[in-house]
Amino acid sequence: MRITIIGTGYVGLVTGACLANYGHHVTCLDANGAKITDLQKGKTPFHEPGLEELVRLGLLSQELAFETILPENSLGPLTTTDTLIVAVGTPTDFLSGGTDIRPLYNAIMEAAPHLPNSCSILIKSTIPLGTTRDLSICLKNIHPDKSFKLLAQPEFLREGTAIEDFNNPARLIIGTQDDQDQIQALVHALYPPLIEKDVPLLITNYETAEIIKYASNGFLATKIAFINEMADLCEATGGSIQQVSQGMGLDPRIGKDFLEAGPGFGGSCFPKDLRALAHATHKFGVSGKIAKATLKSNIRRKESMSKLIIDTMGGDVQGKTITILGLTFKPNTDDMREAPSLIIIPALQEAGAIIQAYDPAGMIQARGSLRDIHYASDPYRAADGAHAIVVLTHWDEFRHLDYHRLFQTMTFPLMIDLRNVTVRVDAESAGFRVRSIGGALEGAQNNNEGDVLA
Ligand code: NAD
Q1: Residue 68: helix, strand or coil by DSSP?
Q2: What Rg do the C-alpha atoms of the chain give, in angstroms?
Q3: What distance in Å separates the CA atoms of residue 351 and residue 315, rounded to the nearest whole number?
Q4: What's 385's DSSP letter?
Q5: How far is ligand 1, taken at its centre, from the CA of residue 86, in Å?
Q6: Helices 289-312 and 206-237: angle between axes, nearest 10 degrees
Q7: Does residue 269 carry a catalytic annotation?
Q8: Quick one: angle between helices 206-237 and 270-283, nearest 10?
Q9: 26-32 mean pLDDT
């Protein structure tokens, strides 16, 4: 199948590389010329495990190509494409409180005149309710002679495990107004390995597909905000959040995922999609109280973390050096969008702290959004002369720190672990005082795999 993708970001690039690996001929287009030039040389624009290898394989086999979206570059791929996939960003429009879908409209409307008559257009971007139906009406009005199949296929891959997620999705959701048999045939042709694996396919109308995406992210984000509030309750009462998470997660109706307490959720999706959900409920006149409460709870959570750090350090951080381990919103990505570090670090700097930081992948991105940080090439250099270490992101590397080595380099041996990854017993025996969150247990690790007595 000949596929063109517009928007070569986290979703578009992973989709393109994986589909080329399935044997399709894929051209990825993007407005960012520098990104495309790098990709043409096999250099990926962000950190995603396994992606660079897959892109290089695609280039080598000539199944994968990259072009800047200029008329002279895009016409070839567009005029011969069987399926157009749209994966441009859909950020919050902070003026209206809604979502900025202009890039999505522009991309589709500019491509449409060049697409073959019966081309399928698959929207993978997360889009506000009603967008697909509006677009289908626009396309019909402007191109009455064409019979495009416009589909909404919400994407559920997660940064850090994006290739694994793409190849093993929990489900495929397709929103359509076309005949189900035709859509099934298209899905079979597009994703043969997923059909072989019997990945559940749910064909819905447009609105349902759009709501499934927002409802899924809203629900997961709410789970995180909820467990963070339970962590506060544990601290106030002497409970242990790790055992609370474990005890809840053992109930199959709840499940153990997204029950790890932390400094609040971030990233390019949860906060943005919750805002869009809250906006949609308002727009359609239904209650959006849960989405709004989750957003509020999460903002409060991020803001409260700097106070927790300052209080743990004796109430005054003026002139003190704090080592931050982890800047990205989660491990295995360099994505800094809405990361808790963007709220916590400036608040500590405002209180007079000097920040030294280390992140395995996010330091280049962080330089664009954080100021006056001394970056180090490993956790031990970052801890040099520090009065406290703060673990902000649960990179695997931070679960296996050499506490003796850290102890020797620091001015004061204090570990403030906002992810509960510290092996408390080891850190304490090396001389550290450990402040975890939610009354984390001595010697316990936040992996929800503590002993369960039969
Ligand atoms: P991104 O910012 O990484 O990439 C978007 C790309 O689109 C950028 O490279 C940008 O240059 C390009 N672009 C924007 N307008 C364009 C246009 N008119 N023509 C050509 N290129 C254009 O975004 P992302 O994280 O990949 O997200 C894309 C969509 O997928 C969003 O709607 C997002 O909510 C959704 N989504 C993201 C994830 C994720 O983990 N990042 C997961 C599921 C769904």
Answers
A1: strand
A2: 24
A3: 10
A4: T
A5: 9
A6: 40
A7: yes
A8: 120
A9: 97
Cα(first)–Cα(last) distance of the chain, in Å? 53
Residue 449 confidence (pLDDT) above 90: no
What's the pLDDT tens digit per position in 381-429? Answer: 999 999 999 999 999 999 999 999 999 999 999 999 999 999 999 999 9
The CA angle 121-65-42, to the nearest 5 degrees, is 130
Please give the sequence-ordered ranges of beta strands (E in DSSP) within 83-128, or none if there are none. 83-86, 120-123
The reply to whether the predicted model has a pTM over 0.90 is yes
> Is residue 406 a contact partner of residue 431, using CB atoms and an 8 Å limit?
no
Distances (CA, A) of 114 to 6, 269, 329: 14, 31, 39
Question: Ligand 1 centre and the CA of 89: distance in Å?
Answer: 3
The 3 state secondary structure assigned to 121-179 is EEECCCCCCCHHHHHHHHHHHHCCCCCCEEEECCCCCCCCCHHHHHHCCCCEEEECCCC
The amino acid at residue 68 is T
Which residue type occupies 51? L
Cβ neighbourhood burial of 89 (10 Å; 0-12, 13-18, 19+):
middle
Q: Which residues contact 137 (CB under 8 A, 6 or more apart)?
A: none
The CB of 69 under 6 Å from ligand 1? The reply is yes
Ligand 1 pocket, residue 88 CB under 6 Å: yes
The string of DSSP codes covering 304-353 is HHHHHHHHHTTS--TT-EEEEE--SSSTT----TT-THHHHHHHHHHTT-
Q: Are 261 and 437 contacting, i.e. CB atoms less than 8 angstroms apart?
A: yes
Closest atom of ligand 1 to CA, residue 106: 18
**Average pLDDT value over all residues in the chain:** 95
Query: Does ligand 1 have an atom closer than 6 angstroms to the CB of 5?
Result: no
Q: Is 35 helix (H, G, I), strand (E, B) or coil?
A: helix
Cβ–ligand 1 distance for 153 under 6 Å, the answer no
The two tokens of residue 435 are 């402040």
Interatomic CA distance for residues 321 and 306, integer angstroms = 14
Question: pLDDT digit string (tens) for 322-339?
Answer: 999 999 999 999 999 999
- The span from the CA of 179 to the CA of 191, in Å, is 19
Tell me, what amino acid is at 81?
T
Cross-strand pairs, 355: 322, 373
Please choose from 4, 5, 8, 11 the residue to mutate so as to test ligand 1's pocket, defined by most ligand atoms within 8 A of CB. 11
